[in-house]
Specification:
By secondary structure, the chain is of the alpha+beta class. It has 2 domains: 123 residues, Serine Threonine Protein Phosphatase 5, Tetratricopeptide repeat (Alpha Horseshoe); 73 residues, Immunoglobulin-like (Sandwich). Helices cover 42% and strands 18% of the residues. It is built from 7 helices and 7 strands. The strands form 2 sheets. A 4-stranded antiparallel beta sheet has the order 1-2-7-6, with no helix packed on it. It has a 3-stranded antiparallel beta sheet with strand order 3-4-5, with helices on one face. Strand 1 and strand 2 form a beta hairpin. Helix 1 runs parallel beside helix 3.
Length: 249
């Protein structure tokens, strides 16, 4: 009986699968530097999954221009995948290109409707509305009865972060903002997997962005308003204790 010939590529195939699995695991664990080191040892530009992993790492490390360059190259290859459009939107949002980011999210929503993408579009709308109102305050109007043009009003100084605190249980983490007399209609709170945005319209446009220390479940999170405070309750993605509430980049 003839002995079966060994497959010369089987060893390398196993190595490739192990590397890819390790890269995806490191990316999900936010070990971006380690994942990129491993990605750089293989040819990843022809594999959409590794392109997604690479850009996730670059965005996580705030290397937005490099991430956008890879994403645009992927689009030129007609890789119009939901993950690529979502990452493109996130990268553009990071550099405050809210309108272009919104268009990327809307394209992603057409292909793969999801609650997460709708929340990203909502976040873009919050920031676009704030920017439009800020722009309208800066417009210098011509008044015929005046001999000279009016000087534009000076920009208001940024408001300090309101007094706040946080506490937790094994399943939830809660942030309390001590701001009085806020109407719920003047408040926008947007949850993401690893961040939180708060926009208050009634007090000169307070905008607060917090990068959370760990992940949450956005669709299981909520907020409430009283006469003295805003309470934001978020469900943890993984049960356990957090040593810190937010991270500073």
């Amino acid at each position: 009986m003839a002995q079966a010939k060994p497959n010369p590529f089987s060893y390398f195939s196993v190595q490739w699968i192990d590397k890819e699995s390790t890269i995806l695991f490191l990316t999900e664990q936010h070990e971006y530097e380690k994942a990129l080191e491993l990605i750089n040892t293989i040819s990843h530009h022809l594999d959409p999954r590794l392109v997604v992993a690479t850009t996730k790492c670059l965005i996580g490390l705030h290397k937005i221009p490099q991430a956008l360059e890879i994403l645009l190259a992927a689009e030129k290859r007609d890789w119009v995948l939901p993950q690529i459009l979502l990452l493109k939107g996130k990268a553009l949002f990071e550099i405050k290109e809210y309108n272009t980011a919104k268009m990327a999210f809307e394209r992603c929503l057409e292909i793969n409707p999801s609650y997460e993408i709708k929340r990203w579009i909502q976040r873009c709308n919050v920031y676009l509305a704030a920017d439009n109102e800020e722009l309208s305050r800066r417009v210098v109007r011509y008044e015929p009865q005046l001999a000279q043009c009016q000087e534009p009003e000076p920009e208001p100084e940024p408001k300090p972060k309101p007094r706040h605190e946080w506490y937790q249980s094994s399943t939830h983490v809660t942030m309390v903002l001590y701001i009085k007399d806020i109407k719920e209609s003047d408040l926008n709170v947007s949850f993401d997997n690893d961040s939180l945005d708060v926009c208050i319209n009634s007090d000169g446009k307070t905008k607060l962005h917090i990068d959370l220390a760990k992940s949450i479940e956005p669709n299981q999170s909520s907020y409430s308003v009283t006469s003295k405070k805003i309470e934001i309750k978020m469900q943890k993605a993984v049960k356990g204790q957090w040593s810190i509430f937010e991270v500073h980049h």
